[in-house]
Amino acid sequence: MKKIETEIPGVFIIEPDVFGDHRGWFMETWSREKYANIGIDNDFVQDNKSFTAKKGTLRGIHFQNAPMAQAKLVSVSAGTVIDTAVDLRRGSPTYLKWVSVELSAENKRQLYIPRGFGHGFLTVTDNVEFCYKVDNPYSKEHDRSIRFDDETIGVDWGISDPILSDKDLNAPVLNDSDCNFEY
Length: 183
Known about the structure:
Elements: E1 2-5, E2 12-15, E3 18-21, E4 24-27, H1 32-36, E5 46-52, E6 58-64, E7 72-78, E8 80-87, E9 98-104, E10 110-113, E11 117-123, E12 128-134, E13 143-145, H2 166-169
């Protein structure tokens, strides 16, 4: 397994070891001991999977406010996405910085996103299956979104007119949000 640092400390890419032969391939998507050795020692309590039918669909920027904030370990089991993490921790040296990574069924990469970050992804292909482990369960009371095109954050999604849910279309900008993350 290879850990690749990103421009934001604490957010990193994982390239799992993949073992293949004439029958196909095998890889571990989670091992408490091996991942703890590279700095992921979260107690993941829930696995989620979503399906997105159409290329050009944007999901995000999502997060859960403290005390139900979630660290995430995300990957793609079908298709390709551009996955983005945004530092929303007031006082952080990387506050409002973001990093984007291509995740695909083909490259088998994972992205680790710690608590205090917003998260979103854009589908690059049709029929995307997106997988994520979280270290806090879903809490409707703490569930939040920020507009994908918030100029304060300035994520370059590479698309001007994505397919959005009503929730994401009507999400507030950061300055109107009650985001409560502190560094």
